[in-house]
Write a sequence for this structure.
C-alpha cells in the first residue's frame, strides 16, 4: 500500500525535475548575435559577459571608496574593531551561530544552521579552528567563501545574458 506521503513525494520530485529543465539555459546569443547551444560555448559567453559587467573601471580611488563607506551600516563599534587581533572563543562561535536565521535553505555544504547548533558539541572545535585559521591567515577558503548566483530572467524567453538579473543567494543571516 502506498501512503499519501509517497504520492506527494513523487509529485514534488517530478515538479522539481521539470523546473530544473525549464529554468536551465539551453541556448543564448553571443556578443555577435549568433546562437550558441553547447556547454563550452555557453560557459564562454557567460564568462565574457559577466567579466565585462563586473570589471573594475579603474576610475575610483581610495578617497571615493571611503566616502561610499559612510552609507554602509557599522557592524561593530570602533573599539570592537580595534580588538580584532584577539583569539576567538568557542562561546563566541556558538553565539554567532545562534544569531543566524533559522529554517533557511542549506548553505553550499548542504547543511542548515540548525545542524551546526544541534551538533555543536561535536563540530564546535572544528568550526573554531576554521574561524581562527581564516583570522590569522587573512584568507577565507573553499566553500566557506562561496555563494550561489541565480540568473533571474527579466523577460519571457531571454536571448542574451543582459536579459538576466544575477542574484546572489546568501543565507546566513
Amino acid at each position: 500500500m502506498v501512503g499519501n506521503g509517497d504520492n506527494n513525494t513523487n509529485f514534488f520530485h517530478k515538479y522539481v525535475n521539470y523546473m530544473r529543465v525549464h529554468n536551465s539555459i539551453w541556448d543564448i546569443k553571443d556578443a555577435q548575435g549568433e546562437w550558441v547551444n553547447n556547454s563550452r560555448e555557453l560557459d564562454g559567453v557567460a564568462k565574457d559577459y559577466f567579466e565585462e559587467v563586473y570589471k573594475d573601471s579603474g576610475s575610483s580611488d581610495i578617497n571615493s571608496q571611503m566616502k561610499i563607506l559612510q552609507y554602509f551600516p557599522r557592524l561593530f563599534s570602533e573599539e570592537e574593531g580595534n580588538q580584532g587581533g584577539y583569539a576567538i572563543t568557542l562561546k563566541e562561535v556558538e553565539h554567532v551561530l545562534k544569531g543566524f536565521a533559522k529554517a533557511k535553505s542549506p548553505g553550499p555544504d548542504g547543511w542548515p544552521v540548525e545542524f551546526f547548533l544541534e551538533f555543536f558539541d561535536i563540530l564546535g572545535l572544528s568550526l573554531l579552528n576554521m574561524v581562527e585559521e581564516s583570522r590569522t591567515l587573512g584568507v577565507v577558503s573553499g566553500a566557506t567563501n562561496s555563494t550561489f548566483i541565480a540568473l533571474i530572467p527579466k523577460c519571457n524567453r531571454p536571448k542574451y545574458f543582459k536579459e538576466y538579473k544575477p542574484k546572489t543567494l546568501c543565507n546566513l543571516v
User: Anything to note?
Assistant: The radius of gyration is 22 Å. Residues 86-173 form one domain.
